[in-house]
Amino acid sequence: MEAIMRNSALAFRPSIAASLAAMALAVAVGLPVTGQSRKPRPDSPANLKALDQKAEDLQRSYLTGLYDLAEGYEDAGQLEKAKQALQEILKIKPDAEGVKTRLQEIEDAVFDGTSHVVEVDASKGWITTGVFVKKDQPVRLTADGTYRYIVNESLGPEGFRGEDVMRDMASDVPNGAVMALIVPPPQQGQRQPPKPSGPFTIGKARDLEPPADGMLLLRINVPPGSKCIGKLKVTLSGNIQPNP
């Protein structure tokens, strides 16, 4: 642990602000505080150096404890709590490269497990992926392949329509790009079908924190009347589960 902290730029040389933060923390966790204000008095350089060393030791102990806590949470499978502990370190030591690297590794670990491949036919409309996603739970989508896109349409000055998200071209997504939307599950007693989220761009790749629970649908953003030939493969990974 000590070696990792040294190699990750946690050889602490506290600034005044960091020293104050460490001392404030010490007070917060229960160090004795007198009820009366103390008048400042001149102190010797030796005493000031000792106080600076004490602040440095407190900060080192606090950050080392946070790193140990992150490792414990990671071992217990609590990756979100592990990330939070590492993020607290970076608030105090934003230049800690080793901590940044470890945080990125934890964030990427969620994408190393379950994956699902969907074939998106460019000639079709919205395609059900068979995958259910949860709100704010990270999902990674990567698309690969090529298709031909031919438009033979008479247009007026208003161009292509974008009023009906389930049929028309999405105005906020690049022309020809892979896009997605989420259809929430029906609620008990609900008479009308649930309203889908607005379409959002996937493109070549995207890490997504879904805006809602629901079934993920995919489509290529082309206008009605266009002719598309070919298929793309989209790989989904992360916090995904078969549609219940």
Number of domains as seen in the coordinates: 2
Task: Enter the CATH topology name of the largest domain.
Answer: Jelly Rolls
Contiguous uncertain segments of 5+ residues: 1-31
CATH-level-2 architecture of the largest domain: Sandwich
Q: Helicity range of the residues?
A: 25-40%
Largest sheet: 5 strands, antiparallel
Overall spatial form: elongated
β-strand number: 10
Strand content: 15-25%
CATH superfamily of the largest domain: Galactose-binding lectin
Write structural notes for this entry:
With 244 residues, the chain is α+β, with helices and mostly antiparallel strands. It has 2 domains: 2-32 and 39-109, no CATH class; 115-242, Jelly Rolls. The chain is 32% helix and 24% strand. It contains 5 helices and 10 strands; from the N terminus they run αααααββββββββββ. The strands form 2 sheets. Strands 1, 3, 4, 7 and 9 form a 5-stranded antiparallel sheet that branches. The chain has a 5-stranded antiparallel sheet with strand order 6-5-8-2-10, with no helix packed on it. Helix 3 packs antiparallel against helix 4 (79-92) and helix 4 (79-92) packs antiparallel against helix 5. The longest helix is centred in the first third of the chain and has 31 residues, at 45-75. It is elongated, with a radius of gyration of 27 Å. The chain starts with a helix and ends with a strand. Residues 1-31 have low confidence and may be disordered.
